[in-house]
Amino acid sequence: MTPAARPGVVYLVGAGPGDPGLMTVRGAELVASADVILHDRLIPAEALRGAREDAELAYVGKRPGEAEIEQPDIERLMVEHARAGRSVVRLKGGDPFVFGRGAEEAEGLAEAGIPFEVVPGVTAGVAAPAYAGIPVTHRDDASAVAFVTGHEDPSKDGSAIDWDSLARFPGTLVLYMGVRRLGEIVARLIAAGRRAEEPAAVVERGTTPVQRTVHASLAELPDAVARAKVKPPAIVLVGAVAARRETIAWLERRPLFGRRVVVTRARAQASGLAATLAALGADVVELPAIRIEPRLDTPQVRDAVGAIHSYSLICVTSPNGACLLFQALAEAGLDARALANATVAAIGPGTAAALANRGIRADVVPERSVGEALVESLAAVDVMDRPALVARAAEARDVLPEALRDRGAKVDVVALYETVAEQPDPVAVEAAQSSDYVTFTSSSTVRNFVAAVGDRVPHDARIVSIGPVTSQAAREAGLEVAVEAERHDPDGLVDALLQDAATRTVVG
């Protein structure tokens, strides 16, 4: 590697405790611009989604009791990349300077003469208790808080922790990496004078959709944690504030908390649905079964756009179709005014909303988002001998154009896009096996999902369908539809899922 004339910069970035929404704006900006990202194990998976396609991503994490790459090698990599003139993000879980060895890495960079910047992150010792409904301070219970590591450097002689002083500490104790030694830690605290009946808690995988909290007295906590089979990463909290959880706990009260939901929608559209479900507490597995491939550079599309002013009826059969129709218009130097002479029909509320976002209020919108309903809604529209455009997907059903032709319309059918199968992520497929729900938003998501995962379809999960056409495709694929949305759009699907979840008990 040839040294650069000017060294790059290393950014020691805290990725937060697990919830991707807790990553700082500055941290996300640096991830998006970095040439190289050296990341730890306990970062949110979504933290890397904003990275450039050409960025070099390297896993340099450590598991409890084992290091896949030693600390000196991590520091050497940072120096080498920086000396080559690269922008390097060292992405660490939580906060780099709170039991994260960030100070050691900063010292190594300083010694090597490498410019660096520290970007603090939200630390798990504050965030995990907060998500469990436990404040680390309270004006009535705790005016001080101590952060303590439960896993010291094994090469040190003895312990640097004064357990006698901690037992007398007049406030909350927050211990990182203490689950494996919990019995020993509790015994030492009680032996040094900490009250055995004091409230305590352990929060496993805090701030994530699979967060668990075990609450007990200090003396009973080790047995309670063992019975619950709590595993790292987890935060141990000791103090009167732990009793506040009964009143303040909020995460577990979200309607989909404890439910794992698979989203099979195309990646470009999945984020909105996934975000809605996550905000309701669901553990979302994004497993897109389809990908939208635009087909705007075809003679049929060019001819339709060129004649757009001549159509008396324009039917748009999906939100994707609405977006791509306006993209095709823009490429031809046109905008919403090009549809001024036409009656505009949208297949349902979702498509109507996509049109409204582009300045078009649909004249015809059936309540049910299926072709048959749109045909019925167009019954009062005079189409005899009039030109009509149906803008749709390549593989859409012919119910609508055939019905319009039967009524004497001169119909042009234009395929603005096609849906193609997406290769499944093996990690997501594995996660889907323990899902509670699998959602389908179109018949193509059903067919491609089943074809992609083969015999790994999670048959114990409840199938949620956006509407009757999708439900029929699911049944033809051998799936039992448990829930069908009354309103055939993503919001209707979420409402149906919520109603079903409210009637079922969370297991585990």
Write a structural description.
A five-stranded parallel β-sheet has the order 3-2-6-1-7, sandwiched between helices. 45% of the residues are buried. With 508 residues, the chain is α/β, with parallel strands linked by helices. The protein is built from 18 helices and 22 strands. The chain folds into four domains: 9-121, Cobalt-precorrin-4 Transmethylase, domain 1, CATH 3.40.1010; 126-252, 2-Layer Sandwich (Methyltransferase, Cobalt-precorrin-4 Transmethylase, Domain 2), CATH 3.30.950; 260-289 and 422-502, Rossmann fold; 293-420, Rossmann fold (3-Layer(aba) Sandwich), CATH 3.40.50.10090.
What is the CATH architecture descriptor of the largest domain?
A: 3-Layer(aba) Sandwich
Task: Report the C-alpha radius of gyration, rounded.
Answer: 28 Å
Mean pLDDT: 92
Number of strands: 22
Strand order of the largest sheet: 3-2-6-1-7
Oligomer: single chain
Distance between the termini: 52 Å
Class inferred from helices and paired strands: alpha/beta
Which stretches are poorly predicted, pLDDT < 50 over at least 5 residues?
none
**In what range is the share of β-strand residues?**
15-25%
Q: What descriptive keywords fit this protein?
A:
4 domains, Cobalt-precorrin-4 Transmethylase, domain 1, 5-stranded parallel sheet, alpha/beta, Rossmann fold
